[in-house]
Amino acid sequence: MQFGIFTVGDVTTDPTTGRTPTEHERIEATVAIAKKAEEVGLDVFATGQHHNPPFIPSAPTTTLAYIAAQTERIILSTSTTLITTTDPVRIAEDYATLQHLSNGRMDLMMGRGNTGPVYPWFGKDIRDGIPLAIENYALLHRLWREDVVDWQGKYRTPLQGFTSTPRPLDGIPPFVWHGSIRSPEIAEQAAYYGDGFFSNHIFWPASHTKQMVQLYRRRFEHYGHGSADQAIVGLGGQVFMRKNSQDAVREFRPYFDNAPVYGHGPSLEEFTSQTPLTVGSPQEVIERTLGFREYAGDYQRQLWLLDHAGLPLKTVLEQLDILGEEVVPVLRKEFAALKPAHVPDAPTHASRLAVAGGAHDATVHAVDDVTGASPEPTTAATLEVTK
Hints:
alpha/beta, TIM Barrel, disordered C terminus
């Protein structure tokens, strides 16, 4: 089981002081948070990709490469990489380079993740969001597995005899998660390729996450990658902790009430009762997180959102100390005791290389027999998620 944090990189005014950090301060804080995550023993740090204010992570590979140079162990990932508006050739080259620079300490999460105005900035139309995600990833999948690619699609110029460089480290393509809040098509895409599925899990009730994960698991098995309970699943979450729940609620309330995403909507109490947001003691976070397994099954990666809503860096680093010292050690032990032997661990470059035995075209799920044709989510599969 991997534990870590993800950031959306928002630049938000601290409602308790009225101060807004500069973009420079927010970028430096992102690096400090990633280094702290490694220091306290977390496994993963992931950054989003946004191209509009008030967000700063428009160049995730640059940021992650910089962090890789200052860390030794932590896995660097994204949350998410925009497969819709980022050219797949660019993704193939950038992330293969990051893979080499980090010595394999990376993976990435694909997603649509854009608001409507962003699409035309990159010459795209939001109404093509799903077809773009399908076509672009089909090409990316081939670019990392075929030395020479001939390709023609609808949304970019054709490729003839094209080789993406550098080639993946050790001949092992970066492991891909497909991240989604509410899209069954993305769950279907993850299942088609035998990739991981990451349910954002921070804005929707448990019943919705359960439906999305179950759909992915069924389709993963349908495509022949293994049994449903062997599918690779990750979950998001949000926490704010102090020694007792009263102090946590008192301190976090102004940040929640004024947050750009959920502020001025449901009350903190309503939101925590209906979503995975946990504001309370470390023990409450432990119990809530262990409860995710009841509806998501045995899963491989748990990421939390900590640095958002204007929380100052000092507070975020304090949260990381609590997470690393009091929460994650208990969760590691508890989840390990519950996991059946046939359920795989979260993939890493080292584990996938061991499975491949150094073979150029092997992957953790042995999915290279897939033709690479664009997966078309079936009507039945799409309907299943709404049952």
